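Minutes, project check-in

Agenda point 3 was the complex the collaborators sent over. CS summarized: two entities, 780 residues total, and the question is how they sit relative to each other. Sequences were read into the notes so everyone works from the same version.
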Amino acid sequence: MAHILLVEDSPEVSMSVREILISAGHSVEEAANGQVGLSLLKGGSKFDIVITDIWMPEMDGIAFLKQVRSAGNKIPVVVISGGAPNAPLTYTAPLASTFGANVVVYKPFEKEELLKAVADVLG
Amino acid sequence: MPARAKTLKRARQRKVAPIRLRKPASRRFAERFSLEFFADQIAAAIVVIDDRGKVVFANAKAYGLLRLAPSAVLDEPPSGLIRICYDRARQRAPQGEPLVFENYFAGRWFEVQAYRIGQDLPSQGGPYLLISLADISDRKRREFDTLENMAGLEEATRIAQMGTFRIDHTTHEIQWSPHMYILHGVTPERFRPTLNAYAALVYPEDREIVARNMALEGASYEGGFQYRIVKPDGALRWVNLDRRVLFDTDGEPYGVFGTVQDITETKQREQELQRLLRRNAILYEALEASPIGVGVLSAEDEKPQFIYVNTAFQETTLHSVDTLNPRGIVSLAAGPGSSEWQQVNGAIESSQSLSIELDCVRSDGAVFPALIEIAPVRDHPGKPASAFVINVRDLTADRQRAAVFLQSQKMEALGQLSGGVAHEINNLLQPVIALSDLGRDAVTADPPRAARYLQVIGNSGRKARDIVRQVLTFARRDSPQLGEFELVPLVEDAINLAHKGVPPGMEIVFSVEGRGFKAVCSPTQVSQVVLNLIRNAVDAMNGIGTVEVALRRREILESGEQIKGLDPGTWFELSVKDHGCGIDETTRARVFEPFFTTKPVGKGTGLGLSVVYSIVTGWGGTVEIDSQVDVGTRVMLYIPEAGSDSEQKPLEHAEGN
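CS then shared the predicted structure for the full assembly.
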């Protein structure tokens, strides 16, 4: 069972994702944006995996990912995205290669889709 | 004279005996010494030549002039100067009166008088030709000097800036008139005119042509040329030199005489004229090359006439000046009676400028949309135009491009709309799907948990409903019932609502000028509009400052200040002003587009201003934005007064159907 950092600004989405993960036996810490996520990563907890949204206030998912990777952190990352309000829907496609996300899961997803992605990145 | 007659005359001449003076002649013969004595006393040279062309008498002066002994002169044909005078006088000397002329020979001037004498005494060997030559060189020189020194001539040459000169190549003497010195900026005291000294005054490049024309060889008999001189003070002047070669009596050239005139100003005018002509030629070529149709309509006559149309004008209209002129500019009118063409005629009649889009017809009958611009050309300000510049541009291609552009913008807007809606809805669907799934197991196992899930699912559903409502408001498929409402309390309510979301450092003030702001609108929409504008203002100001909301009455008259898109009448101006970051030009062009936003992700949907615009145009009003980067933004809503004319006809929304 993994300890997971969940970075998501929408409380409803965050809650529903947390519930999915907990139902599968994982433990979850939540962050409302990338800034909070970074401080949790630097803090005492040891995370096995990061799940992050893209469009968030303060620090968005892309900036967050860049900082994680530039700090040399190779932790597996699952991106959950609802598509971009001001960008083509395909924008998230190069996320994996460019920003080091391991998997992208598009909202709204089924419970099984997310859990499979988490299992895949955990290996 | 026929050859035979000549022969006869010669034969007769041969028969005539040598002159023998008879009694009256012998008496004169007796007085011969006295005759010669007197003849020798007078200053003139006297020579008598008989009709055979032989000299029969000459006085001492004549011998001196000819530098010949009497034996070489008498009974011989005349030579030298006498010959020249004889040839000239023989043919032309009249009866009775002497022929008088002046002749220049070997550096001296002579006054020549030729008398035909003994005409009625052929028996005495007549007729004879008596030639007297008086040396008048001194007098001529004095005349010349006098002429040049005469105040009048001096004044004339000064006005004409003309000097005269004479070069005698036999004596190497150069004479300059006083004005020559003035002209060249030198004085007779300090400058002695010699060919070399003169060359120094000539612009180096022009020295050769001057030297060639001052010399005798190679120069044509007479003519003129222009060259530059450099005065001792450094001034460069253009002069014109006209000169003729002087010939002695033998026909030999010996000198040059001429005039020099300063033509600098003329030359400058000439160069200026050349520049003007060149510029005109360039202007003409530029007009011809212009991609915009340009025509010139002259209003000099009763009926305005085209005097010029450029190539683009001809290509656009398939008309030339000739085909246009019978009817004038109306030749281009697709519908001559249309209000646009009446405006064109009105502009020409009243000498006004005009820029108008209208339908034009080509000479082949094809109709095209065009932009016609008319600019009056006035000789004097305030006077009616003497001509008009008429620009014609075919707008067909522009219209097509605009249509394509509009279409692509629509597609882009649609993409943004669907992308934005999709993102919002996808996020809201996430808990609906996930929690309903998880909740199914919790219903029996953990009812409180299931209840929490259902709460979140319900909230998400309602948020999705609000999004859809905003989209529909934007698309105006959902029109709320409009009614007559007083704006002030509605705006106040909205401001009170807005206060809750405003950071502590910020303030919202509301000022109302006047009373009675009844408009046809809906309370929810007023609230939506005001909240949207205040939200934008707050976001622009970074949490500090005052948002100023103001409501006032604006009377738009036929004449006076106009506001784009507003008909004359009473309008309410509801404005929201911030002192925030402002909006740049590029952004301003797009602020009414749905889902267009400059805000950071998570702040605003990008629907705000497009919803405001959609609502206000739905009331028959309009939205204006006045903004300066880093100074602030003022958004003004113009809302028609209930019951006024403007309210009767709500503006058609551009995207509506």
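Noted in discussion: Strands of chain A lie at 3-7, 27-31, 49-52, 77-81, 103-106.
Follow-up: revisit at the next meeting once the mutant set is ready.
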